[in-house]
């Protein structure tokens, strides 16, 4: 009869040994995906620890602070000293490159009224923002103080940044 030639890695696995090229490729893809998922988890854990460190460096008082990052969402838990601290922690996390959503699960030890939030637009200044919210551009220091220590200079705000706009004390 003679010899017949076949492609070794194509066809059914009859002997229970070896793998087809497709099986090997699928296993390689699965291993690469698993490795990428582990690396992404490490990056997200490192990002969460860095954010926690930043919040501690800013001396924002949150007992039991925990941050979890999953893709572009961050979840924050713990007990903030007061509402202002809670809002500042949310802003520190939310104004971080790569974070699009903050899931705030913090509680507050000393309650007070919630502030409003303002997303800075191109051309905004603290004076313009104060004029919009308070009717007086000269109230910009209230907004500046409410966003310390994240803001270090009233002239250094940027489009897309979110700021706290506290209620004025009468």
Order of helices and strands: HEEHEEEHHE
Indicate the overall shape: elongated
CATH topology (fold) name of the largest domain: GMP Synthetase, Chain A, domain 3
Helix segment tally = 4
Round the mean pLDDT to the nearest integer and report it.
Answer: 85
What is the level-2 CATH architecture name of the largest domain? 2-Layer Sandwich
The portion of residues assigned to helices is: 25-40%
How many domains comprise the coordinates?
2
> How many whole angstroms does the radius of gyration measure?
27 Å
CATH class of the largest domain: Alpha Beta
User: Could you give the count of β-strands?
Assistant: 6
Distance between the termini: 104 Å
Largest sheet: 4 strands, mixed
Which structural class best describes the helix and strand composition? alpha/beta
Percent of sequence in beta strands: 15-25%
Low-confidence stretches: none
Walk me through this protein's architecture.
The protein has 170 residues and is α/β, with parallel strands linked by helices. Helix content is 38%, strand content 21%. It has helices at residues 21-57, 83-94, 126-134, 140-146; strands at 62-70, 73-82, 101-104, 107-110, 116-119, 162-165. The strands form two sheets. Strands 1, 2, 3 and 4 form a four-stranded mixed sheet that branches. The chain has a two-stranded antiparallel sheet with strand order 5-6. The longest helix is centred in the first third of the chain and has 37 residues, at 21-57. The N and C termini lie far apart (104 Å).
């Amino acid at each position: 009869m003679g010899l017949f030639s076949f492609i070794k890695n194509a066809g059914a696995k009859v002997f229970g040994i070896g793998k087809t090229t497709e099986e090997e490729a699928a296993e390689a893809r699965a291993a690469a995906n698993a490795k990428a998922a582990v690396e992404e988890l490490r990056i997200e854990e490192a990002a969460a620890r860095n954010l926690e460190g930043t919040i501690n460096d800013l001396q924002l008082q949150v007992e039991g602070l925990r941050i979890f990052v999953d893709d572009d969402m961050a979840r924050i838990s713990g007990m903030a000293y007061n509402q202002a601290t809670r809002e500042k922690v949310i802003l520190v996390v939310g104004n971080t490159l790569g974070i699009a959503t903050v899931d705030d699960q913090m509680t507050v030890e000393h309650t007070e009224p919630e502030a409003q939030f303002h997303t800075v637009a191109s051309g905004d200044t603290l004076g313009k923002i104060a004029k919009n919210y308070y009717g007086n551009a000269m109230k910009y220091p209230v907004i500046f103080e409410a966003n310390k220590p994240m803001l270090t200079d009233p002239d250094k705000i940027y489009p897309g940044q979110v700021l706290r706009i506290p209620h004025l004390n009468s």
